[in-house]
Specification:
The protein is an alpha+beta fold. The protein contains 4 helices and 2 strands; from the N terminus they run E-E-H-H-H-H. Helix content is about 50%, strand content about 15%.
Length: about 80
């Protein structure tokens, strides 16, 4: 539950929350490239072929993207990054 505090300054009222706004995670260039291909609906094998890397490397990068964004599926990741 978010706690809001209202205060007045001059002739205006403001409502603020003390909860921090989550920052976007920092992604490596490789993770950014994998994310873009993932958003196009590509499989790990297709991404690996395009990126000229191992499927296992792509799987690790996808897992890292899940962890950094706090999700557990490609659809959750897509929904979160395309808000």
């Amino acid at each position: 539950m978010t706690r809001w505090t209202t205060f007045r300054w001059g002739g205006s009222s403001f409502a603020v929350t003390s909860e921090p706004v989550p920052e976007a995670p920092t992604l490596t260039r490789a993770e950014q490239a994998v994310l873009q291909l993932l958003l196009e609906g590509r499989t790990n094998a297709e991404i690996a072929k395009v990126r000229k890397t191992a499927v296992r490397t792509v799987a690790n990068q996808v897992a890292s993207l899940f962890k950094k964004h706090g999700v557990s599926s490609r659809s959750e990741l897509a929904a979160k990054v395309t808000k």
